[in-house]
Amino acid sequence: MLNTYRQHAIKRMFERGMTEIDVDSALSNGRVIENYPNDYPLPSCLWLGYSDHRPIHIVFADHHQRGERIIITVYEPNPSQWSTDFSKRIML
User: Fold this and answer.
1) Beta-carbon contacts of residue 45 (< 8 Å; ≥ 6 apart)
2) pLDDT at 59 over 90
3) Cα 42 to Cα 8: distance, rounded to the nearest angstrom
4) In terms of CATH architecture, what is 2-75?
5) SS3 41
6) Quick one: 13 exposed, middle or buried, by C-beta within 10 A (0-12, 13-18, 19+)?
7) What is the pTM of this model?
8) In 3D, which of 56, 60, 77, 78 has the Cα closest to residue 68?
9) Dihedral of alpha carbons 51, 56, 60, 64, sign
């Protein structure tokens, strides 16, 4: 599947010192931790993966007809807002 980056994702990656290599690495070794089936125009999900030992959350939507994965945003989860394994939100 071909990765297509939304402008928002590119901006956030730049701000956070992340590269496409980091994203590819995280996508190759992670898992879906939240599903957003009602997102429009395509259902999306939140993915947790790692680049080296850096946790990375990626929100993306797959457009299967086009063979395209649309990267919506990318960020390093804040430890104060996530469980120790970065897979569950902490409710404050």
Assistant:
1) 32, 34, 35, 36, 59, 60, 61
2) yes
3) 17
4) 2-Layer Sandwich (3.30)
5) coil
6) buried
7) 0.94
8) 60
9) positive
Mean pLDDT of 38-50: 97
Determine the distance from the C-alpha atom of residue 40 to the mean position of all C-alpha atoms in its chain, rounded to a whole number: 17
- In the chain, where the domains are located: 2-75
Residue 1 has pLDDT above 90, yes or no: no
Q: Which two tokens stand for residue 25?
A: 């690495």
Long-range contacts of 22-29 (CB under 8 A, 24+ apart): 22/51, 22/54, 22/56, 23/51, 23/56, 23/58, 23/71, 23/74, 25/49, 25/50, 25/51, 25/52, 26/50, 26/51, 26/56, 26/58, 27/3, 27/58, 27/69
